[in-house]
Amino acid sequence: MALLLCCPCGTPIDAENIDLIVEAECPRCQRMLNLELEIATGRYQRPVLTVLEAAESDWVGEKFIVPIGESLTIGTGSSIWLSLDSAEMEERHCSIRVSTKGYIVIEDLDTKAGTWVGGARIAKGKLRAGEWFRVGEFRFRLDFKSSLGTASGGTSDEDEDFAAVLPDGEVARLHYTDSPLDRLVQNRFSIARQSLKVFAGLALVYHVIMLRFHDTNPWELHYALLAGLIVFGLLYASARFMRVLHKNLRFIPIGLLVVLAIVDIAAWAVPLACIGALVMAAGLMLLINNSTEPTVAVIACLAVLTALILIVAPTINRTLPLLASI
After folding, report:
1. Looking at 70-79, 155-164, 176-185, which range is the least confident one?
2. How far apart (Å, rounded) are the C-alpha atoms in residues 45 and 52?
3. For the chain, what are the domain ranges?
């Protein structure tokens, strides 16, 4: 997977030849980010954070360049360095910082579920290069990569007042007692992705049947199947963009749904698919908004459910007579 670069303010930075650059400027806050540090041998290293485990498999393997000397916040909120959708994380869950000397500090931001390095819960501590840490359902590893792309160890440490690891009695994993509505809001991006994938599968079946057995202009089976597969492929592939991290890319699926609605009504004359796509687009738009409230999230889920029904109901209605005639 490609390397991703974000500013501490939460803005993704689209940099060409990101493997080569050593500095990048944030287009939003104009902060200049240092991406590499020099070690004693005169070589340069770049800190890279890799997602090892996640609730959603789409995240696994993602790699983020860690700017040097910046306090970087990880959580579920907006306008932070790495914003994730997780039921077991808080808006500002933990922070990491790679100093210009090469040592790494990780600090829990007074959370219920805690931040874990190895198997121990920490308040604040040193993270060695190559070690993993866990926040919520996500497990990360931070490595130093040389200019040749190979992993290497950390550099020298500085004296820092690190808090001790919590006592053994506190190491047990804690869980939230959030309300169902709170969990709905926290998991809204995951709900949006999965709903779009389901809609893509149903849209495949719907378009094959409706185009193949159209009342006035029936299609050949292979053409109907090709059209359905194109619709499915585009919608299913675009679901991975529906993340907090992707500030603009997350609207690609919504744009595809609007285009699908236009094509359905203008070229293929399948009005229910058009309505379903527009309702789904509206529901997803409400779900992926950064300021989504519990009430809005419920309305969005109802809109998504309505869109799925608008695809399923006519498909069943058209299929049953065909099955009865066999």
Report:
1. 155-164
2. 21
3. 3-177, 181-324
